[in-house]
From TrEMBL, chain A:
Superkingdom of origin: Bacteria
Family membership noted in the UniProt record: Belongs to the ABC transporter superfamily.
Species, as recorded: Chelativorans salis
Coiled coil: none
KW Isomerase (keyword) present: no
Keyword annotations of the record: ATP-binding, Cell inner membrane, Cell membrane, Membrane, Nucleotide-binding, Sugar transport, Translocase, Transport
GO molecular function: ATP binding
Upper lineage: Bacteria, Pseudomonadati, Pseudomonadota, Alphaproteobacteria, Hyphomicrobiales
Protein name: Sn-glycerol-3-phosphate import ATP-binding protein UgpC
SMART domains, A to Z: AAA
InterPro entries the record matches: AAA+_ATPase, ABC_transporter-like_ATP-bd, ABC_transporter-like_CS, ABC_transpr_MalK-like, ABC_transpr_MalK/UgpC-like, Mo/tungstate-bd_C_term_dom, NA-bd_OB-fold, OB_MalK-like
Limits of the ABC transporter domain: 4-234
From TrEMBL, chain B:
Membrane topology: Multi-pass membrane protein
Protein name: sn-glycerol-3-phosphate transport system permease protein UgpA
Stretches assigned to coiled coil: none
Known function: Part of the ABC transporter complex UgpBAEC involved in sn-glycerol-3-phosphate (G3P) import. Probably responsible for the translocation of the substrate across the membrane.
Residues of the ABC transmembrane type-1 domain: 72-284
Keywords, sorted A to Z: Cell inner membrane, Cell membrane, Membrane, Transmembrane, Transmembrane helix, Transport
Transmembrane segment boundaries: 12-31, 72-97, 109-129, 174-194, 206-228, 267-288
Subunit annotation: The complex is composed of two ATP-binding proteins (UgpC), two transmembrane proteins (UgpA and UgpE) and a solute-binding protein (UgpB).
Family label: Belongs to the binding-protein-dependent transport system permease family.
Subcellular location: Cell inner membrane; Cell membrane
Pfam families: BPD_transp_1
Amino acid sequence: MSAIAIRDVRKSYGKTEVIHGVNIDIADGEFIVIVGPSGCGKSTLLRMVAGLETITEGTIEIGGRVVNRLEPGERDIAMVFQNYALYPHMSVFDNMAYGLKIAGLSKDDIRARVDKAATMLQLQPFLDRKPRQLSGGQRQRVAMGRALVRDPAAFLLDEPLSNLDAKLRVQMRLEIKQLQQSVGTTALYVTHDQVEAMTLADRLVVMHDGVAEQIDTPMAVYARPATTFVAGFIGSPAMNMLPVEAAGNRGLMLANGRTVKPRDIRLPEKGRKAILGVRPEHMAPVSGPNADLELDVAAVETLGADTLAHGRLAGVENGSGELVVRLPGSTQVRPGDRLALAIELGMAHLFDAESGARLKELDLPAVPARADKRLAEAVNA
Amino acid sequence: MQTKRTIFGNRVLPYALLLPQLAITCVFFLWPAGQAFRQSFLREDAFGFKTRFVWFENYEKLFADPLYHNSLWVTVIFSLGVAFLSLATALILALAVDRTLRAARTYTTLLVWPYAVAPAVAGIMWWFLFNPTIGILPYVLEMLGYDWNHRSSSVDAMILVIVAASWKQISYNFLFFVAGLAAIPHSLVEAAAIDGAGPMKRFFTIIFPLLSPTTFFLLVVNVVYAMFDTFAVIHATTEGGPAQSTNILVYKVFEDGFIGLNLGSSAAQSVVLMAIVIVLTVIQFRWIERRVQY
């Protein structure tokens, strides 16, 4: 039985539909991250699960119960807000105890539960303080504690780390993950940050314009993005997208008239227009004759471990054909250089030119195993 | 707090700019206040021929006067009545506007209008509405079985002046409550809803406590208003009657001084009022601004 089931959920404000039928099945104890750019409907979807927004169409089930018509308090969920939403006039203890008091628990019971959560979150010394006397990280913990004490069927987290500074964010990210694993409660987490999404998620939901474009493990989303949007959104720097036209046996014709023939992928029928996607980290400099692509370097960014070479596909004049390649940090490359590059085996992606959908029928069944290491690098960039 | 400082090139200019305000303050506030203070130690005959310095005799008589005690008591009831009625009504209206998505601005604008009505006009309007002979409200009340007559019933009279004085103050309080409610993050209310609190519980445990700085501020402002700014309302409706039952301190100053021509006592009463207003102002600035903050 799934902990949360979102079935064909739609949301309209007046006549404008902002969520166009989303289906997600979340298993018990799973950590699901909904990621997408701002305005993609990810927060709206979470708020519909919480009961803070009405559901225009479709059903949401929590623990096997349809909750469409239930009040937020009756849904057996706890939520962590972006601004923490701590009650400013109550102590940390009272903040955590508020929901329990309303639920009518005995004083001893409340004290025991709050103490347990406070110990887990190292909040014991601060129980008598007011929220304004706490640092950002501590407030964040109180917000987590308030969710924890209620022992709900699911945690809902709405960009909980975006008000923290970069260092604290990395630390709290880890703490949230560990906490969720230790209590084993289902979590639905919304963020626009792909690093948070990749590191936290058991499964990712990539949303764009009110549609869940791909629901899969972070690795699968990275290795086989379902659409050009997902391909561009997950991974940094973003995947290179080159318009191509199938040229039969010669392979794929690029905008500069040359052809490229990735060896690990089936080729579309001749004349079909497509988009060839290659991640910057999946190209390597080679000697001339083995090259798939040639890059005219326009700018170089040295990041220490890596060097990013930005530029344009050789021989392309009119604005298109932008290309980025990630090279080892020791590579000597200067603007004006022409780099001969080979696409790594199994690392070419083909998408439909119009819909942007992945041409799945062209994928070879083998999923490249070594992408793991690359993923870790991409995420830590 | 950061303040903007303007540097004037000319030394005289800043004083010249201050002069009109200072002149108004001196002529209409400080001078009469000084006059009242001086007069409160004097005793004058009814025709103004002889004036005698009597030390604190005016005050001694005043504090021994049962009519003055009555007026104090009436003022307390009246002020609290006005403060409670106007605050409660304003809060309910503000909560209603806060829940409204469409037309909230229109409601707000309409609800602020009464504040622009002169107190005497408001008093007359309520006097008409409650007039036992021609008013519509006594007519309605009579159908409900209540015989309204504020000319003979002191309870009716008190209700009349409280309603009349509260009416325009509701607008003022409403504006502050709307602003106060807007300042409460919506996510707090949502968090409480997720914690299982119903609308009433949310109001009393989250919204009302967070509004308390606004509420305390308004309480003081309203008490000050009811005590000092309601002369016209009383004058246009009950004139302190029946049987002194709505004769609040401010009205008594006028009645004793200008009708009864007991200038010494009237001046002493003014000085007492001044003392009260000073105390309330100090409370407002010191105690409230520091204590009720989150």
